[in-house]
Amino acid sequence: MRAQPIASHFVNGAYLEDAAGAPLEVLYPATGEVIALLHEATPAVIEAALAAASAAQGAWAALRPVERARILRRAADLIRERNPDLAQLETLDTGKPIQETLVADWPSGADAIEFFAGLAPSVTGETIPLGRDFAYTLREPLGVCVGIGAWNYPSQIACWKAAPALALGNAMVFKPSELTPLGALQLAEILAEAGLPPGLFNVVQGRGAVGASLVSDGRVAKVSLTGSVPTGRKVYAMAAEGVRHVTMELGGKSPLIIFDDADLESAVGAAMLANFYSAGQVCSNGTRVFVQAGIKARFLDRLAARTAAIRLGDPLDVDTQMGPLISGLQADKVMGYVTRAVAEGARLVCGGTRTQGNFVAPTVFADVTDAMELAREEVFGPVMAVLDFSTENEVVTRANATQFGLAAGVFTADLTRAHRVIAALQAGTCWINAYNLTPVEMPFGGSKLSGVGRENGHAAVAHYTQIKSVYVGMGPVDAPY
Ligand code: NDP
Question: What biological-process GO terms show up in the record (predicted)?
């Protein structure tokens, strides 16, 4: 598959170029090679996308939900058919190993499209008996939605936002991260091929300023952002100006709590998945691994041994288990955290080196304390912080002592403790004896600074529709005048 798309943008059912836009070089993170050259959206491209979305949305909303669903299901089938090629492009765009992109990225996107296609026809309002009179509610689409994505799961994010938006009768203008612009264009092509009318899913490329002009446009009813907390704050504030709906999927510093009685190999495996998958560039990662005193030595032994065996290398090789970070800048940032963690007194158990280019070895720090930077800030790289704890009450208090609230996990064989601890944790997405599994059937999202709203599951319906209440008078109007 060519990495260079036909044009930079996809607007009103077709590729669109405007070479007047600032150049956007797409680099393969594993080698730094330029794999595509795009242009940022100019005001004319942004205007064309918003105008197309506004014009197309009404007729789409007026279709029967099963008709919309039929088109989306076809798109999900096309994605599955083309998954090997799409996975390869995703690997080129992100540097993530092909063994991940084959199973995680587009497959999860196809699941979302299939799920919301199936769900949409059963979304209904309610009737409210009021004696002689009654009321009913309609669940209506919001209108034009803007989606803005991060670079870690670019195609999955595009699908997770497009699927509920489109299934429920909205139109979308999507801006991918400038670092990973390719997957969303594929989605636009596939949706068009599946029969989606022009204008309903548009892709415009660009940096933050392009996102900002979309978010502040008067035609936009909703903004769904996946990104960092600082960007989330800005976008949320801009959306508030126009009293627009928002979904904010932001960063985290999530706790993964491992009690003495946990199954050792599962707990180690989960901690590794929670820190090393996608080279640690996952928002919901369990980056504060709290390990109870009685299991600590065995846990660290097995963790070090299994981590040392992780295969870094060419992301296109199916045997490679970890690729590079997205950019040199991100690798610099991660190495800065490593250096400062050592300086603060954390004990380096393994890794801690930049092996070459954007590659950072999977890294484990033990004896991390709550006050250290490594326990407070999101690193977004393959760096695990292991913290010690003694009692359940203590660990719950410490786990909650953060402004983030995206995710949390607990490993224990004690059923009642598992549920008790989860109930006490302040996090939007939690796992018991598992970590980072995000099936589309389950709502996903954060509390506190990690976000508002939920993607996936039935919960997403509320974030892509609004309620219209209708009172029906069944008799003469009783006026006092
Ligand atoms: P950023 O916050 O830097 O960017 C997110 C998106 O917002 C990008 O497309 C970016 O464009 C765009 N953007 C930046 N500034 C503005 C602005 N002022 N107005 C509108 N749009 C803007 O995040 P990253 O791409 O660096 O992704 C990493 C972050 O995303 C991490 O914090 C991670 O935790 C979070 N994340 C959260 C997830 C969740 O579901 N909760 C999932 C995945 C990641 P550009 O990049 O082109 O500048």
Answer: glycine betaine biosynthetic process from choline
